Amino acid sequence: MGQRSKLQFCRKIGVNFERAISSSNAYDDRLRELVEAGKDIESAYWELVVKDIQDACKLLEPIYNEKDGEDGNVSVMVSPKLANDTKGTIEAAKKLHKMVGSPSVYIKIPATDEFISSMKEVICLGISVYATLIFCLPKYEAVIDAYLDGLEACSMTDLYKVSSAAAFYISRVDATLDKKLDQIGTTEALDLKGKGAVAQAVLAYQLYQKKFSGPRWER
Question: Where is the signal peptide (predicted)?
Answer without folding.
Answer: none
